[in-house]
Amino acid sequence: MIRLVSPARLRELGILGMNRRNISFIGTHNRRKNYRLADNKLATKSAALSRGLPVPKLYGTIESQSQIKSMAAQLADKPSFVIKPAQGSGGKGILVVTGRADGLFVKSSGLVIDEREIQKHTSNILAGLYSLGGRNDSAMVEALIDFDPRLQDYSVEGVPDIRIIVFRGVPVMAMMRCATHASDGKANLHQGAVGVGLDIGTGQSLHAVQYNRIINQHPDSGKGFADLAIPHWHQVLDLAASCASMTGLGYLGADIVLDLQGGPMLLELNARPGLAIQVANQAGLRWRLAAAAEIADRTTDQAEKIQWACEQFTREPAGQLDLVIN
Questions:
Q1: Which superfamily does CATH assign the domain made up of 7-54+147-313 to?
Q2: What does the alpha-carbon distance between residue 292 and residue 267 come to, in Å, rounded to a whole number?
Q3: What does the pLDDT look like over 208-223, one tens digit per residue?
């Protein structure tokens, strides 16, 4: 049973609410002209490549309905791939194909679809069905991440990703989002994925939540989260922090995946990251953001920002608070 925390207790715990986030952080530290890099995944990829930051390989883009007919020929030599909207949000519109079977396409869930369904999905992307504001969009076709086998049992039917909140270049809070059967293989908490709070200093797990409830093991694989530790943790933090200078955004969420061969890779950015990361960490953002501001006032050196963040935000797993943040 979920125990709701009173507003006074939430303030005491330093929980950041939506209004304060929008006004004091997004509105104050994110200039509108800088949103483009975060809101468009193609723009994000281009900017990252220009700075030498690792990203999943782009197979191609579909920008008009007339290109859809030739998709099958373009994908003929690709046994697996991901199709996603360039301006999508919240994991919507992402189609993951993990293999082929008798001329058909196998989704991450194991369901089999045909070429017509691939074309229909892509057509819906172009029409803006999944884009911010319903605007006409482009479809991206990317390589499927071969994620690190050490994370294999923590995510089912999809690739786990790591969300890190970065404020003025300082990594503030982190969680791993683990796909489930309920989330259709997508790392989206609102669709049923599991959020695992991560210690900024070590990359070790703190708490895990699904549908705002504390859990101890993955609902599908049964794998316990207590021993989860993120490989290449310092590289993950460095990649996330690099996104601040790349975008000019003072407050952002960086989503990173761990590829078996390529290591940490930037998946996408979010200029309006959600607040459920506080539930996964059972901790509030407000005090950390205040500390991060002091760190950023003290130095402009990225390595020093990360070092001080690791020292200040590392902690032992706290008691269960049963936070609920909508």
A1: ATP-grasp fold, B domain (3.30.470.20)
A2: 24
A3: 999 989 999 999 999 9
Separation between Cα atoms, residue 197 and residue 127, nearest integer Å: 36
Half-sphere exposure of 195 (CA within 13 A, CB side): 27
When pLDDT is averaged across residues 118-137 and rounded to a whole number, the result is 91
290, 168 contact by CB (below 8 A):
no
Q: Provide mean pLDDT across the span 301-321.
A: 82
Which part of the chain has CATH 3.30.470.20? 7-54+147-313
End-to-end CA distance of the chain: 17
DSSP letters spanning 232-271: THHHHHHHHHHHHHHH--SEEEEEEEEETTTEEEEEEEES
Which DSSP state fits 186?
-
- Closest to 156 (Cα-Cα) out of 203, 109, 198: 109
Residue 235 tokens read as 């590289």
Could you give the CA distance from residue 311 to residue 251 in angstroms, rounded to a whole number?
20
Instruction: Give bridge partners of residue 177 from the DSSP assignment.
Output: 161, 195
Contacts for 278 with CB less than 8 Å, ≥ 6 apart: 15, 16, 173, 284, 285, 323, 325
pTM, two decimals, is 0.90
| CA 143 from centre of chain | 17
Alpha helix stretches (DSSP H) within 127-276 = 233-247
Q: What is the CATH number of domain 58-142?
A: 3.30.1490
Ranges in the chain annotated CATH 3.30.1490: 58-142
Mean pLDDT over 182-186 rounds to 84
